[in-house]
Write a structure and sequence with these properties.
Blueprint (H helix, E strand, L loop, with lengths): L2 H12 L3 E5 L2 E4 H17 L7 E5 L6 H11 L2 E4 L6 H11 L3 E4 L4 H7 L8 E4 L11 E4 H4 L16 E8 L5 E7 H15 L9 E4 L6 H11 L3 H5 L3 E4 L5 H11 L3 E4 L1 H8 L14 E4 L6 H11 L2 E6 L9 E2 L13 E2 L4 E5 L12 E6 L6 E2 L3 H7 L5 E9 L5 E6 L4 E3 L2 E3 L1 H9 L4 E11 L3 E10 L7 H11 L8 E4 L13 H11 L1
Parallel strand pairs: 1-11, 3-4, 3-5, 5-6, 6-7, 10-11, 12-13, 13-14, 25-26
Antiparallel strand pairs: 1-2, 8-9, 9-19, 14-15, 15-16, 17-18, 18-20, 20-21, 22-23, 24-25
Length: about 525
């Protein structure tokens, strides 16, 4: 089943109901679905087809759901990107994907206009609000203009193996890779998520409070879960409350106002809520469970949050290449501190050694997985796809072990990736930027533990002979080249970087040095 059919069947199965609250306004599922049908017609009129790649760069907004669905209905591929990215970062994705069009909002439109300069394959830009600019290059239209279209378009033939969403994620080279997720992948993701949530045993309404960006696979998962919600839950008065972006105090206020009982979150969000100076002013006793993923969750944070608010914190594990899934704790399972739970019902997990041989319970190795949620591959990167999918298993690059009962414990990462506030940050990408600054001879980025954000970014830099550099100069330069959350919190100017006999920088030693220098 493709996602367009899934949305139609959900409407038929669940009937008309309130589905979303955003900025104090209620939206019904029928209303949002009608918008998606109008956008389907409008997108077709703009030339969108099955081979089209369409970028979405916008904050969370109720209209993002009809935009996604309108793209799905044409059979095209949606490419959500974080609105926090800089113009050069967006431009790389536009060029690599050969995107035909962009949907954005007033916050990001100036950045988009800068990013598209000289890219002839961009035919149009749609802006959430503003004025039509049909004579611009590329042409610009408001979403309101597109919503004036009729709803007469029928669904084309869309195969389960067709790519529905492509999410760009960086690798150790620092160059973003397009992860191709098919309609079948995402349908299986929704099925697995609903199963792990044990909705058949849920009592009363399921009222979620989400600030997860729709440019993150976690946010996409929230949307897919809505498609597969059970009629029992829907009839109980379930709906979702959403924020444009996470702000701790407003987040707590909305939980209190709507008596939300479920929140999807990353560990940093829980830390910020726990440590907020006004936390005691809000009643969060309605919470029943927190679904926490995207980075490693501290046992202390999980325990403290659970005890303070009387809810279960369910840690999950996954990655974009697996549609965000791998394993999950369930309400019905006993809590195991530090565990990311058991594999989803349609996902097979294993632990391999360096020779791709399975390891016994309790033995650490690389986490691998296979099943219907695993990506179709990396866009136009056959060799990297083959490397990641060796022997039919997705190699995650993460280190962990399974206990005797099949529960997964994630203990380390093979790659040097830094996870800050739930966002993946790749050192090589930042090192490449630093190397572009005049006078830099060598650079290395490492991560160190941070109680709030998970990890801090630390840079070690060696100046060229005769050059004089300051950390502030490097920071100012990087602010122009990358997103603010990727800027190092500390920059150490050093005489040399530790290396092994073949010249590889020893980042383990730099991490140890960074801890001593704090």
């Amino acid at each position: 089943m493709n996602l367009a059919q899934l949305a139609e069947s959900a409407l038929e199965r669940l009937g008309e109901r309130k589905s979303l609250v955003f900025d104090g306004k209620e939206y019904k599922n029928v209303e949002l679905f009608d918008y998606s049908r109008r956008l389907h017609t409008a997108f077709n009129n703009l030339g969108m087809k099955k081979e089209s790649n369409i970028v979405l760069c916008m904050m969370n907004n109720p209209m993002i759901y009809p935009v996604f669905e309108g793209i799905f209905r044409t059979g095209a591929t949606a490419i959500p990107v974080m609105f926090l990215l800089t113009a050069p970062e967006v431009r790389y994705i536009l060029m690599d994907s050969k995107a035909e069009g962009i949907v954005t909002d007033p916050l990001s439109v100036d950045k988009i206009r800068e990013a598209v300069q000289g890219l002839d394959h961009i035919k149009w830009i749609i802006v959430l609000e503003g004025e039509d600019r049909p004579d611009a290059s590329p042409r610009e239209f408001t979403l309101e203009t597109l919503l004036a279209a009729d709803m007469t378009q029928s669904l084309p033939e869309i195969a389960g193996d067709d790519v529905a969403i492509m999410m760009y994620t960086s690798g150790t080279t620092g160059k973003p890779k397009g992860v191709m997720l098919t309609h079948d992948n995402l349908y299986a993701q929704g099925q697995a998520s609903v199963d792990a949530s044990e909705l058949d045993d849920w009592e009363g309404a399921y009222i979620s409070m989400s600030a997860m960006p729709m440019a993150h696979i976690f946010g996409v998962g929230v949307m897919l879960g809505g498609y597969l919600s059970t009629k029992k839950i829907a009839d109980a008065g379930s709906y979702g409350v959403q924020m444009g972006w996470f702000e701790p105090e407003q987040f707590m206020a909305l939980i209190q106002e709507y008596k939300c009982n479920v929140i999807p979150a990353v560990p940093t969000m829980l830390s910020l809520l726990l440590n907020h100076p006004n936390a005691d002013k809000y009643d969060l006793s309605s919470l029943k469970e927190v679904i926490c993923g995207a980075s490693s969750l501290s046992e202390e944070v999980a325990r403290t949050f659970s005890e303070r608010y009387g809810c279960r914190v369910r840690e999950i594990y996954g990655l974009t290449e697996a549609s965000g899934l791998g394993s999950a704790n369930r309400q019905s399972d006993p809590y195991k501190p530090g565990s990311a739970g058991k594999a989803y019902f349609n996902v097979e997990l294993n632990i391999f050694d360096s020779n791709d041989q399975p390891l016994p319970p309790g033995k650490s190795g690389e986490i691998v997985m296979r099943g219907p949620t695993i990506m179709k591959g990396y866009y136009n990167l056959a060799e990297k796809t083959a490397e990641a999918m060796r022997s039919g298993w997705l190699h995650t690059g993460d280190i962990g072990y399974l206990d005797e009962e099949g529960d997964l414990f994630v203990v380390d990462r093979v790659k040097d990736m830094i996870i800050r506030g739930g966002e993946n940050i790749y050192p090589a990408e930042l090192e490449d930027i630093i190397y572009r600054f005049p006078g830099v001879a060598e650079a290395a980025i490492v991560g160190t533990p941070d109680p709030t954000y998970g990890e801090s970014i630390v840079a070690f830099i060696v100046a060229s002979p005769g050059a004089t550099l300051s950390g502030q100069e490097i920071v100012d330069f990087m602010k122009k080249e990358t997103s603010s959350f990727k800027i190092p919190s500390k920059i150490h100017m050093v005489d040399a970087l530790p290396k092994n006999p073949v010249g590889k920088i020893l980042k383990r030693e730099l991490r140890e040095k960074a801890l001593v220098m704090e």
